[in-house]
Task: inverse folding
């Protein structure tokens, strides 16, 4: 059974903290993605990676960075968390041309 | 970035009804097309891929019209359990082309 695992289901952080969201997939996929989902705005792409050590900005990269040191792991970093980064964060992976598999999501609240 | 557009709904239909969703995409080079289903507070999950010739899976039929750049999803004999948000997803075939999601169409099937 294919799996994309996100490190936390729920997270509460303080403004200004550095936050790491981890995503691991066991399908040997090359492409991995980080989205955030907010009511009325749908899924918005933050960053994606199509190979180890490769990263591309998505539509809303400001305030975020990513790391892909190993093929199976794609980390999203909030350098200094702010309240407007309170959201549901979804990681996905796929083999190009095929379906995407999602992690269960991390609901982050920044207070 | 190119967009995918869907009617946000909500579509409120009685059990047993037939309901159709449409989705338009702007990138004519798009190669892969999918419908995903997302339940409240859950991650999106693949409902079905969409093939050029059209495809059917039980009560669900998906069609692709490349000339007009739209995708459709037809649900026959709606069940209460079909209530969810349906996301139209489009991707290219090159390694650095990410998935693009529509904002989703909300369906409520009413007893």
Result:
């Amino acid at each position: 059974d294919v799996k994309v695992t996100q490190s936390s289901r729920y997270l509460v952080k303080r403004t200004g903290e550095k936050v790491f969201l981890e995503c691991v997939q066991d399908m040997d996929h090359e492409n991995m993605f980080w989205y955030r989902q907010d009511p009325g705005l749908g899924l918005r792409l933050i960053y994606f990676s199509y190979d180890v050590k490769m990263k591309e900005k998505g539509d809303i990269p400001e305030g975020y960075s990513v790391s892909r040191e190993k093929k199976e792991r794609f980390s999203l970093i909030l350098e200094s968390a702010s309240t407007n980064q309170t959201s549901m964060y979804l990681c996905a992976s796929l083999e190009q041309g095929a379906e995407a598999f999602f992690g269960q999501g991390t609901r982050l609240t920044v207070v | 970035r190119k967009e995918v557009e869907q009617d946000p709904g909500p579509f409120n239909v009685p059990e047993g009804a037939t309901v159709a969703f449409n989705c338009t995409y702007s990138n004519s080079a798009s190669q892969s097309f999918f419908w995903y289903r997302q339940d409240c507070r859950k991650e999106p999950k693949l409902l079905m891929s969409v093939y050029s010739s059209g495809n059917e899976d039980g009560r669900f039929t998906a069609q692709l019209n490349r000339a007009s750049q739209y995708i459709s999803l037809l649900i026959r004999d709606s069940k209460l359990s079909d209530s969810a948000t349906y996301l139209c997803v489009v991707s290219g075939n090159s390694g650095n082309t990410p998935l693009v999601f529509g904002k989703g169409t909300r369906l409520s099937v009413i007893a």
Remarks:
- Chain B touches chain A at residues 1, 31-32, 34, 41-46, 49, 87, 89, 91, 93-96, 98-104 (CB under 8 Å).
